[in-house]
Amino acid sequence: xxxxxxxxxxxxxxxxxxxxxxxxxxxxxxxxxxxxxxxxxxxxxxxxxxxxxxxxxxxxxxxxxxxxxxxxxxxxxxxxxxxxxxxxxxxxxxxxxxxxxxxxxxxxxxxxxxxxxxxxxxxxxxxxxxxxxxxxxxxxxxxxxxxxxxxxxxxxxxxxxxxxxxxxxxxxxxxxxxxxxxxxxxxxxxxxxxxxxxxxxxxxxxxxxxxxxxxxxxxxxxxxxxxxxxxxxxxxxxxxxxxxxxxxxxxxxxxxxxxxxxxxxxxxxxxxxxxxxxxxxxxxxxxxxxxxxxxxxxxxxxxxxxxxxxxxxxxxxxxxxxxxxxxxxxxxxxxxxxx
Length: 339
What we know:
With 339 residues, this protein is α/β, with parallel strands linked by helices. The protein has helices at 2-7, 51-67, 76-80, 93-109, 121-125, 129-135, 138-152, 180-191, 211-231, 239-245, 260-269, 285-299, 311-338, and strands spanning 24-31, 41-50, 113-120, 163-168, 198-204, 255-258.
């Protein structure tokens, strides 16, 4: 558990972003299953926003479902395939577009930060048995990444600011009753640099918490996008996902792809016992992986080159701002002692 908790984002990682909001709550939902032969990618995605924003969202979202005549929680898979409570909507494209447009706009209006992690199933299975054993499952790779990303939201807030984290209930992976996912969360909180920003842990269902329905929509669209990169590479990014990735506070994606090389980078940097294959990974792979995601946004999402601000320049700027703040604080302390 300790090695797993430290693997995806080791303690040396310090990519923290600035945001002024308070009382954060994150909602995450998984997508896909590694045993599904039809899927190449699985993962997790969701949002972090102030608690007040989620309160407004829940009321508006409930109104949307009620006005649309829907009596059950929203599930993007049912909507996409016109099944379940959406069966009668099949072929009614004007109705479908209007509903999805309103649903996505409600998510955008929260001002939330989208977070996501996608894991290549073939990349995971290409690792040695010992390496796969250390990771346990692609689910936990994505779980760790999204947990870390959620914690980052509070890093530059007041010391007491934390993020309450809610995950969609998943009995197979132990999101409740002290299961494996819950244990992993507490291990991350204890061992990693963001631990003091991790507030409370909870697992619930989309029926009980509307924001998990928003996470479900994002997770579905994100996994669909990466599947399309293989199956329909000439298609542009779908409208809903374009709106969601446009929510980022700075022009850099908070989505990570764990392909074989990124998985091997973690194996190398976290010093897994079995280092087979790590020679494939370049020393600057973190930067290369980021640039790959920016290329994805520009080519698939059709964003302009202006959107691609260097993430690492932003990090360096943030560190300088933080360092300047510490310097001024020390000077004030020295001045007060002299007086």
